[in-house]
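fyi for ur records
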Amino acid sequence: MSGLLNKKTISLQKQINDINTEIGELATGVTADDVIIHSVGTVNPLAVGATVTELGDGAVHKTIITLDEVAMPVVDGTSPATDGAWGKMLLYTFPAGHIQILGGHQVFPIGGLVASSAGSGLTSTADFEIGVGTAAAANASSFDLNNGTEENIVPHSTVALTTSANADIESAAQGTAAVYDGSSTAALAYLNMRTSEDGDSGTAASTLTCSGTVTIVWTNLGDN
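which gave:
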């Protein structure tokens, strides 16, 4: 008898949920399938070697960006003694809406970060920070990343190259639940890096080749 009652209770709850959904659709004129929160973003086609895997449902998304030798241009600061060498690469464009970042994580295995022009650009033993933020790194009178915008999605990892390559790197998982307004201009996710001191880079442009994964867990709160 208890099994039959449980089945009837589940069936009744489903009917109530269906009715509530229909009431919401009638009130707003928008069907559940049309709600913006069901959409996902796009990986940057110019980030050659980057692919994306999307997991989750209409409420919570898990975006895994896999980097396979993605080349990030690195330039020296305008005033080398006070401006760190920096690099940026747009990875992902979120769908329109208010994007709430629930967490972020990055992993670069041994040799996943390689300086291609040691000696003239990034040195073979360069120290730098790398992370993911809503704003692109740019020339600045500072060393290391700006944690307000350049690493607010995935916190930085501190990298110390040896013979132009890194040891095993894994960032701390971030869960700030911050919301970014992408209702009129889409929110973006940039992979950013900046050296820790002047001696980490010469004056020539160079390339940091990146292989690893960036994972972002997020939800879209809608465009209103």
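The chain has two domains: 1-34, 36-220. thats all i got for now
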